[in-house]
Specification:
The complex is a heterotrimer.
Chain A (H helix, E strand, L loop, with lengths): L1 H19 L6 H18 L1 H18 L1 H4 L31 H37 L1 H15 L3 H12 L3 H28 L2 H8 L4 H37 L11 H8 L8 H28 L6
Helix pairs in contact in A: 2-12, 3-5, 3-12, 5-6, 5-8, 5-10, 6-8, 7-8, 8-10, 10-11, 10-12, 11-12
Chain B lengths: L7 E10 L6 E11 L3 E5 L6 H8 L8 E3 L2 E4 L2 E2 L5 H7 L4 E4 L3 H4 L6 H12 L4 H14 L5 H5 L8 H13 L5 E5 L7 H17 L3 E6 L2 H7 L2 E6 L2 E7 L9 H8 L23 H7 L7
Parallel strand pairs in B: 3-9, 3-10, 7-8, 8-9
Antiparallel strand pairs in B: 1-2, 1-4, 1-5, 5-6, 10-11
Helix pairs in contact in B: 4-5, 4-7, 5-7, 7-8
Chain C lengths: L1 H40 L4 H6 L5 H10 L6 H13 L13 H36 L4 H15 L2 H15 L24 H7 L3 H38 L2 H9 L3 H38 L5 H10 L3 H29 L5
Classes of the chains: A mainly alpha, B alpha/beta, C mainly alpha.
Chain lengths: ~300, ~290, ~350
């Protein structure tokens, strides 16, 4: 038994040695070593790990919402309206007798849906605009960066409001509006990274081998922009959640009776004096999730992008 | 070596930087003393020469662990000094010129303001007096149009000019010891000698002590009275500059052999050989070389 | 020689300024183009809105031509451009007044709030940021980290509601929504539109104190977010500067530590901080939309929300242009300040 443990210990030591060597024998070993050090660094940041756990929990809750939520999130039950906390309704009930806990649980799906779609739309647009702009420079750069600046010249929420006003309220339109206002910073970051990468020797070498612009950008420049972009997108998730909730609060995002957290806060407003849990619980959910993304983003930044410190 | 009145005494200085991969022992048990002389501190990068200079001024970052039996200046024990007492030593008694004036000057203040500040800190005088003194000092470092230079910002002056400004700033409170940390390494070759000449003149005129930190053995040999050779945080050898070429120490010999010579020997230059045994303190004691004489 | 140099320099500066102005003009045009395009994608037919859906085809066509909607898009844009530049944003459906007039009336309320909030942000945020950078890992650094995290993670509307619930409804420490108590409403005639200034001008001190009292909660809330941002940025700028070698130079000179921090390091941070403060002011205009809605604060944010909920597109786009222009103006202003204060940018 002791021998087994000792063996394990030796294997562990060997693995550690292999990972941490100053003279890696292969690119894979080097990458594995870096990932290991990164992981150690990340795990040391307990708050970042907490953030990650909250986000994993959020995904879990969203996936299994029908099993976790004890009540239907939409069905009203007027006999149970405005109930305070109880064993049956742990977050109480709202003005039409819906279980707030169940609504918050179902709301996690909407939140994930919003941030997922925004990221899927905005991040690729930003990275394409930024890398193309940075790689080609000159006229292309000037035009693309002017357009980026024009979008940056609007406060995000105001522009999103104007878009939603034009497109009409609704969760899909809110997503489009937020995505339209989210890409410019990503373009800026990708452009900055591209400009430094563009002038490096390995890009020249690839060029000499005859690679075309599209290949260079997509295969060699974009992957190198990813780490700083991931950090930024993660940190932005918090802002996106808050903006989406703000739109919902103003009645321009998800429409009632859908259990969107911002809209729930809004409908609870009228009952603020005597029934505080109506606004407190969904708002708390928004807060916890965006806090989690901020914590995770900070942790990722320390690992992936140690230079920037803002 | 005739020791005039002693300025600085360092005994068994140790500097340790903690790091996640284990402590880095940057300086191990080094000792030396200094009078009103020019002493060269030579070594490769990472040999601990710069941190030694900063440790004397107690200006290493707080996470660095500095310990020593003694660091005394004019008989005062610097280790027992409070931060406030140290401030009266810094600049006023011991000053330091750093490597690159591009980084060591405050970019948003004029050159004149920065030099006068160094003066005002230690002598409570009016701004106009400080200004007069600054202009005098600028002339002393052979700047021909001090009035104009006074108003310039650091990014508007050349490297050589910047380093002369640094020297003016560090010498204006009339310290008795100057630590020059690679003061010419960031400069063009053509202005290096010019700056050195100014430094040399001023130090000699004012009868100051100088610790000249450099990786350039030849330069140090031609410029200093004594040379301390460091490797891996230890002192390998302390030798009079005049005797340098007769050194028998393998590391010193190695350093000397790496230098290209103009007088026609076109053999291949030898690469530096390093022996880990040198880092072992016992090695020196048992070999009884002339390595550690102080 | 020197004269030649200065002339050359003058020319260079003039060119720089011209280029800068051109950039500003292009950005502004782009801003208007976006609002114009947003106006065009509105699913509501603007002609139907005017003539009503029972109008005959002929009436409809005549109205369409009268509104210039038969012209090519670029001509419509030019017409739009010229009217916007004249300050004509159309008429609000909701108030039946010109949108521009409406905005002028409500704007001071927003400015008053945003201004006080920024002051709060600067005077609390900067010292907090500097101290946490100097004493990294110390108590105040942790405080500022928590303040920052909360600022980035708390939805402002929720925090505002909680604050109202606690300080107004439960504890009755602070007044509720509105700029002044109801019985003071309409006593002071607006001159500047700033309640604090107008009440002083009218000599109504009681109203001044009441207005200030009403400002505390919304201004502190908005200011909290601005403080969170400013303190985090100050901290990271300071950490960056404290690492620089000129800091070591100053210490070598024997300069006192507080002077090293506030004179040397902070002197170098102050310049980028101008931009940060400008950006946070812009963000406050944004935050005011939600805050004003909750505090029934009759400013631009509330105006915008009301217009949005009533599909009053002229008012929405007008407000968007105004906020966008102010945002742009702030950016230009901070750019200019940057160039004035940073010797390297001159």
């Amino acid at each position: 038994m002791n021998k087994l443990m000792a063996d394990q210990q030796t294997i562990y030591n060997h693995a550690k040695e292999w990972l941490l060597t100053d003279t890696p024998a292969s690119a894979f070993q080097a990458a594995a070593g870096r990932a290991y050090l990164g992981l150690l660094e990340f795990l040391k940041n307990r708050l970042a790990v907490l953030g990650l756990l909250i986000i994993i929990a959020l995904v879990f809750i969203a996936l299994f919402a029908p099993y976790i939520a004890p009540f239907d999130p939409i069905l009203t039950n007027l006999s149970q309206r405005l109930q305070p906390f109880s064993a049956e309704h742990i977050f109480g009930t709202d003005e039409v007798g819906r279980d707030i806990f169940s609504r918050v649980v179902w709301g996690s799906r909407l939140t994930l849906y919003i941030i997922g779609l925004v990221a899927i739309i905005a991040a690729p647009v930003g990275i394409i605009v930024g890398t193309v702009s940075g790689y080609f420079g000159g006229f292309v750069d000037t035009v693309l960066m002017r357009i980026t600046d024009i979008f940056l010249a609007f406060p995000k929420l105001i522009l999103a409001l104007a878009f939603v006003a034009a497109l009409g309220p609704g969760i899909e339109n809110a997503i489009i509006a937020i995505a339209i206002t989210s890409w410019p910073p990503y373009a800026r970051i990708a452009r900055g990274e591209t400009i430094t990468i563009r002038n490096s020797d390995f890009i020249r070498a690839i060029k000499l081998q005859g690679a075309g612009a599209i290949r260079i950008i997509s295969r060699h420049v974009m992957p190198l922009c990813l780490s700083s972009l991931i950090v930024r997108v993660t940190l932005d998730m918090a802002g996106i959640i808050i903006t989406a909730a703000g739109l919902g609060f103003l009645g321009l995002g998800a429409q009632p009776p859908s259990p969107e957290w911002g809209a729930m806060t809004s409908s609870g407003r009228a009952y603020i004096l005597d029934h505080w849990w109506l606004i407190t619980m969904p708002g708390m959910a928004i807060f916890v999730v965006s806090l989690a993304f901020n914590l995770l983003g900070d942790g990722l930044r320390e690992v992936l992008d140690p230079k920037s410190d803002d | 070596m005739i020791q005039q009145d002693q300025l600085l005494q360092v005994t068994n200085l140790n500097i340790i930087f903690p790091s996640p991969k284990g402590d880095v022992h940057a300086v191990k048990d080094i000792s030396f003393s200094l009078g009103k002389e020019k002493i060269g501190l030579v070594g490769e990068s990472g040999s601990g020469k710069s941190v030694t200079g900063r440790a004397i001024l107690r200006l290493l970052p707080p996470y660095a662990k500095v310990s020593a039996e003694e660091i005394s200046f004019k008989g005062q024990d610097l280790l027992s000094f409070s931060e406030k007492e140290l401030r009266c030593i810094r600049g006023k008694e011991i000053s330091m010129v750093m490597q690159d004036p591009k980084y060591s000057l405050n970019p948003v203040r004029t050159v004149g303001q920065q030099i006068s500040e160094a003066y005002i800190v230690h002598s409570k005088v009016s701004k106009s007096v400080a200004r007069e003194q600054t202009l005098k000092m600028l002339t002393a470092v052979r700047i021909r149009n001090p009035e104009q230079v006074y108003k310039l910002y650091p990014h508007e002056v050349s490297g050589g000019m910047g380093q002369r400004i640094m020297i003016a700033m560090m010498l204006i409170p009339e310290p008795s010891l100057l630590i020059a940390d690679e003061p010419t390494s960031a400069l063009d070759v053509t202005v290096q000698l010019q700056v050195l000449a100014i430094l040399d003149d001023l130090v000699t005129q004012r009868g100051m002590g100088l610790i000249f930190i450099s990786h350039d053995l030849e330069l140090v040999a031609s410029f200093c009275d004594r040379v301390i050779i460091m490797y891996g945080g230890r002192i390998m050898e302390v030798i009079n500059a005049a005797d340098l070429h007769n050194s028998t120490h393998p590391y010193t010999r190695g350093l000397l052999n790496c230098l290209p010579r103009i007088e026609g020997r076109n053999e291949r230059l030898s690469t530096l050989v390093r022996d880990d045994a040198w880092l072992d303190a016992d090695f020196w004691h048992s070999n009884d070389s002339d390595g550690i004489i102080i | 020689m020197t004269q030649f140099l200065t002339q050359k320099r003058l020319k260079k500066t003039a060119l720089k300024i011209l280029k800068f102005l051109l950039m500003v003009a292009i950005t502004f045009l782009g801003l208007l183009l976006i609002t114009f395009l947003i106006g065009r994608v509105v699913p509501i037919d603007p002609v139907l809105a005017v003539v009503g859906d029972k109008a005959s085809h002929e009436v409809y066509e005549r109205a369409r031509i009268a509104m210039g909607l038969n012209l090519p898009l670029w001509q419509q844009f030019l017409i739009y451009l010229s009217s916007v530049l004249r300050g004509d944003f159309g008429t609000s459906v909701l108030t039946a007044k010109p949108v521009f007039e409406d905005i002028l009336r409500v704007f001071p309320a927003t400015m008053e709030l945003a201004f006080l909030a920024t002051l709060f942000g600067i005077f609390v945020g900067i010292p907090l940021g500097v101290i946490s950078a100097v004493k990294r890992g110390g108590f105040l650094d942790h405080v500022s980290r928590v303040v920052g995290l909360l600022g980035y993670s708390l939805p402002i509307f929720w925090l505002a509601l909680l604050a109202l619930m606690i300080f107004y409804a439960k504890l009755d420490l602070l007044p509720g929504p509105g700029r002044v108590d109801v019985f003071y409403d309409g006593i002071v005639t607006p001159v500047t539109g700033f309640m604090l200034i107008d009440s002083i001008l009218a000599g109504e001190w009681e109203i001044f104190w009441n207005a200030l009292y009403h400002l505390i909660m919304p201004a502190t809330l908005l200011g909290y977010f601005s403080m969170a941002y400013i303190s985090r940025m100050t901290r990271s700028f300071m950490i960056e500067q404290l690492r620089q070698e000129y800091i070591l130079t100053a210490r070598v000179k024997g300069v006192a530590e507080w002077k090293v921090i506030w004179g040397h390091a902070f002197g170098n941070c102050a310049i980028p901080l101008i931009t940060v403060v400008a950006l946070s002011f812009g963000a406050l205009l944004e935050g005011s939309v939600l805050t004003e809605t909750i505090f029934a604060w009759p400013g631009l944010g509330l105006y915008l929300t009301n217009s949005l909920l009533n599909a009053d597109m002229n008012a929405v786009l007008g407000s968007t242009i105004v906020v966008g222009s102010i945002f742009l103006g702030i950016n230009i202003f901070s750019d200019i300040l940057y160039k004035v204060f940073d010797p390297r940018a001159r």
